[in-house]
């Protein structure tokens, strides 16, 4: 497939950016979203807005799902009912057990599943700079290359379907440690009467520096939390990590602390659904 038609099911924060990257690469896109306004907003890219999952997959060479969780991905792909043999590029973060369930549904429907969660948030999705954690049939590597190359700066092929979701748990566990660590240090500096900007300046350029700490840390200091990786999705993922840790026989005490802080932040915010994961700092304010 040199110019495959891609059905994108789910055009929220991540899916919309992925549609734009696919269109920028010249790939035909048929898109669907539960909120029709979100998919209509993408028609200016040349993507075709569809009224149902089944309409979107009609004539598509590849079906891509980018939805909130495993339940949503499974429900939508069942509604879509792609023809047997269609490659299903499943990019939603679904966790270990969710990946097993999507594999079972793919087998039931006769779909060729590539379990492919991504690393990256809104901006990398818009720029085609995601890291694609692909796992699935070896024979799909070449046919899916135009799609993966349009979406990502790098694709890792990890073996049988499910390996991508397992690695995503390890990667997100690290991401949440960095986010929560930055939040704690910024809150502590502020609480001790030190300008938290000095914390970021102190780590800059050193062995413990990371660009992510500066991006999220700057938002934490400013108290602005525009959504790049939404707090509700991050909280969901932290629960998936907790399940993965337990299934692997690894203590979940660190992830549990982060999850509890995310939940405290959600309780402290007026509209947690409209907040980025950097708002986790709101969960570190102790009542006085």
Automatic annotation (TrEMBL):
Sorted UniProt keywords = NAD, Oxidoreductase
Instruction: Tell me where in this chain the 3-hydroxyisobutyrate dehydrogenase-like NAD-binding domain is found.
Output: 162-281
Which InterPro entries does the entry mention? 6-PGluconate_DH-like_C_sf, 6PGD_dom2, 6PGDH_NADP-bd, HIBADH-like_NADP-bd, HIBADH-related, HIBADH-related_NP60_sf, NAD(P)-bd_dom_sf
Return the Pfam families for the record.
NAD_binding_11, NAD_binding_2
Residues in 6-phosphogluconate dehydrogenase NADP-binding domain copies: 6-159
GO MF annotations, alphabetized = NAD binding; NADP binding; oxidoreductase activity
Active site, UniProt feature: 168
Q: Which family does it belong to?
A: Belongs to the HIBADH-related family.
PANTHER family annotated for this entry? Answer: CYTOKINE-LIKE NUCLEAR FACTOR N-PAC (PTHR43580:SF2), OXIDOREDUCTASE GLYR1-RELATED (PTHR43580)
Q: What is this protein called?
A: Dehydrogenase
Taxonomic lineage of the native organism: Bacteria, Bacillati, Actinomycetota, Actinomycetes, Geodermatophilales
